[in-house]
Write a structure and sequence with these properties.
This protein is of the alpha/beta class. Helix content is 50%, strand content 8%. A 5-stranded parallel β-sheet has the order 2-1-3-4-5, sandwiched between helices. Helix 4 packs across helix 14, helix 5 runs parallel beside helix 11 and helix 11 packs parallel to helix 13. The longest helix has 32 residues.
């Protein structure tokens, strides 16, 4: 009789825990069943032609832009006498801006704005802080690629994710493992990273709107370091096995199928809009194709490249845009994987780009 109280209390706690757990489990299934159809039926982690990266690079771009503004205010820089290179990770790993300044033969500075993921929407996001100011770079280099017109569509990955019925968690050996898999196929859990990303992107958008409303980008996004600094670069996985895995993944994105490239797609329209916005500001725009591994480069359909060229030139008079095609400029030994240069490749490519850009810009200046 002495232990009756503690045992009853323990039983009450256990029963309460089971009731709460069962209620949560039921709520997840019911809510997910109601919500999931609103966001697409394929059971996959990410869907759509655009997968937004975390906004860390949006903040970096805003801080670099704020640093350039302060340099102008201090009289250290003319608001037109600088160039901007905008691109994804291939640009981040492929260009050494300080070496470019030293080798291009031009008396101008270069700022590098980069993000992750091949999409014109990503490049538009990291360009927005600059486009919200009165800064007018004399030259804008956009690191684009034909595959940007197709995007990173991952719905095909749904075929590899087995559907597990919730009742399966109650039978069999690995109960906890089965429960984890069932949870992972539910919409909320599958898309947790995407939800967090969208929330933080909305937070950044609100801050940018506030900064622009009060003309105070350098107050809201206080420069943390030298805006001309080299971007941080991740450690790349090298080797044929990893490269082959990348090729398989890109094939599932549809990058190697000519029918997936279209002049009238949403991503094509966004590419045109990005180019036009800089041209309307008075900047000379160059489209840059960085080096890619031959195993990837040769799989891009010729029709896709033709669509890409038309999209970039659409509605523009002759000479308003330039193409710098260095996609096949380096041997494969200078690439760490399909699209990212190693350290030796970065130095060699930067020198090639410096000569090419320097010659083009000097010719433009002489012509005017």
């Amino acid at each position: 009789m002495i232990c009756q109280g503690p045992l009853r209390s323990l039983w009450t706690n256990i029963r309460g825990f089971v009731i709460v757990a069962a209620s949560l489990w039921t709520a997840i299934l019911v809510i997910d069943t109601a919500v999931a159809p609103m966001f697409g039926t394929p059971p996959c982690r990410l869907t759509g032609p655009y997968v937004p990266p975390p906004p860390i690079h949006d903040y970096e771009s805003a801080e670099r832009t704020a640093g350039v503004l302060r340099a102008v205010e201090r009289g250290e820089l003319d608001r037109r006498n600088f160039g901007v290179i905008i691109g994804a990770s291939a640009v981040r790993h492929g260009i050494n801006a300080r070496l470019l300044e030293a080798e291009d033969g031009l008396d101008m500075r270069w700022i590098v704005l980069t993000s992750l993921g091949g999409s014109p929407r990503t490049l538009e996001r990291i360009s927005r802080p600059l486009l919200q100011t009165d800064l007018t770079p004399s030259v804008v280099v956009l690191g684009l690629h034909p595959t940007f017109l197709v995007g990173t569509h991952l719905t095909l990955l749904a075929a590899d994710q087995p559907r597990i019925h919730p009742l399966d968690a109650l039978t069999g050996g690995d109960v906890f493992g089965t429960v984890a898999q069932v949870l992972n196929q539910r919409w909320f859990v599958r898309n947790a990273d995407l939800i967090r990303t969208e929330w933080t992107l909305a937070e950044f958008d609100a801050k940018l709107a506030l900064a622009c409303g009060f003309d105070a980008i350098d107050k809201v996004f206080v420069p943390q370091a030298d805006p001309w600094r080299e971007p941080a670069r991740s450690i790349l996985v090298e080797g044929d096995e990893h490269r082959a895995a990348q090729i398989r993944r890109f094939a599932r994105f549809g990058w190697f199928e000519a029918g997936n490239y279209s002049d009238g797609s949403q991503l094509s329209a966004e590419t045109q809009r990005l180019i036009t916005r800089f041209i309307e500001r008075g900047s000379k725009v160059y489209i840059l194709l960085t080096p890619f591994h031959s195993s990837f480069r040769t799989k891009i359909p010729a029709g896709g490249r033709e669509v890409f060229a038309r999209v970039c030139r659409a509605g523009l008079a002759e000479g308003r845009i330039g193409f710098i095609d260095l996609e096949g400029a380096l041997p494969d030994e200078f690439l760490a994987d399909t699209s990212h240069l190693n350290a030796a490749g970065r130095e060699r490519f930067t020198r090639l780009l410096a000569r090419d850009l320097g010659d083009r810009i000097l010719r433009e200046q002489l012509a005017h």
